[in-house]
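User: Last request for today: this protein with adenosine-5'-triphosphate, please.
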Amino acid sequence: MIRAWRSDALVGILPLAALVALWWGIVAAGLAPRALLPSPVAVFGRTLASVADPAFLLHAWATLSRLFAGFLVALVLGVGLGLAGATNRFVGGVLRPVVRILAPVPKIALYPAFVLSLGFGDASKIVLVVADALFPILLATYQGAARVEPKLVWSALAAGTSRRAAVWTVVLPATLPSILTGSRIGLVVACIVVFLAEMITSTDGLGYLLVRAARSFQTVEMFVPLIAISALGLALNGALAALRRRLLAGFPNED
Amino acid sequence: MAQAALIDPSHPPEQSTAPRPAAVEIAGVTKTFQRRTGGTHLALAPIDLAVADGEFVSILGPSGCGKSTLLYIVGGFVPPSTGAVTVGGRPVTGPGPDRGPVFQEFALFPWKTVLGNVAYGPRQAGASKADAETKARGLLARVGLSAYETFYPKELSGGMKQRVAIARTLAYDPAILLMDEPFGALDAHTRLKLQNDLLALWERDRKTVLFVTHAVDEAVYLSDRIVVMSRQPGRIKEIVPVDLPRPRHRDELLLDARYQRYVIDIERLIEDPPEEAGA
Ligand SMILES: Nc1ncnc2c1ncn2[C@@H]1O[C@H](COP(=O)(O)OP(=O)(O)OP(=O)(O)O)[C@@H](O)[C@H]1O
Ligand SMILES: [Mg+2]
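Assistant: Here's the final one, the structure of the complex with adenosine-5'-triphosphate:
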């Protein structure tokens, strides 16, 4: 098990290493102007230095807190609405057309409206994250819940469970694999969109750092928030995968 | 392993002699399914059947004759198209803890351990976690799975899963068991073992059992009456009372000419194409 996992991790790191090597090669060969593409040594050096810088950490925290707040609201809403839509005919009837219309809308296009109504602060960014992370979670939950083996629910109803209680005690846990899959996508989307929102209007956060560096042509500084957000995404994804292994211990193995 | 029976030796079988009232009454039940392509499909022609309290009734018939559908209707999981089912005098409008299903596919909760699965019913009925688990442990001991309480269903063999499923159903003490080919997915050896366990359990508790099966010998071995169904539409072809003494022992029965006669006769009944049955 452990050995298999290790070799998996190794295989996962290889392309990353290859990418960095390519980057380093391009810079070393002088194929790209230094002002546009700084060397990976400089970039990683600056990133490491930033991690020790309290000002940088405050920016990272601003991004992380928005991401978390938005993702958690999206999770609760997405799971709640998805379950309700799949188990209640009326809710499902109302939800399906609404989702069909709203899901493909590029939420970032609504951001100016959010800023106008909610201001430049955290609220408008969090709402944007919710709007974008909601649909992958909602759709995955809905489809998972609609496909729960009816005999699981029957077994619960026969044991005297009410239909409402069966939603919580059977449909929800049976939908967990789908919910976690949707959450994984929602989390990636949340990372992207919180960064975008901070690039558009913000006075703090990783996205703001990138724009600030770009304005003054500090290319090395530009790469630092990028690396920080991808490291953040990687860490959150890893945490979610660990949670998945724990929560889905009894489910048939996938992948 | 011989001790790992569904019976608890501390409780002797309860004697029952007096005729009992009808536990399940199926009156004029039909089921029509809407076809995807437009038309309708009559799965069950009117079915009338009364099952006495404490009776063991098997339903035999070719694949697709509506055995499962009939059982689901009695369970209240699926509504009949016409007709009605009454249980203990009350019309069935939905599932209830007086009727405990056991499905061929086990339908165990994959996210719960063996103990959690069996404790589910008592827990839902309002028992504390500790009480529910005590009850579940007692049932797991009865089905011989005490050592497996922390396992997940996916870590069990088919026979073990079906024992857990039976224990989960017994945990809320239904008066009527609705078993849909419960041993159909099991190997011959496990199947015999579970048949014996079920018979011992039934002889002790005298629950009413509706038992769907494909196996004629299994039906004769276990049942008081056998309902033979035919297909297109699904209907009752014949009801055969099995007049063999109880308690039954498999090794004695196999030598019993009456048992052999039942098996042969019922196999013939099933083999007959329904068209020639002259319904
Ligand atoms: N949900 C459904 N929708 C449409 N048709 C159905 C549905 N369920 C069952 N049927 C039809 O009803 C008939 C009876 O099905 P059922 O599953 O009750 O048969 P069965 O006797 O249990 O068969 P088997 O022995 O193979 O389990 C079949 O012809 C089947 O096609
Ligand atoms: Mg069936």
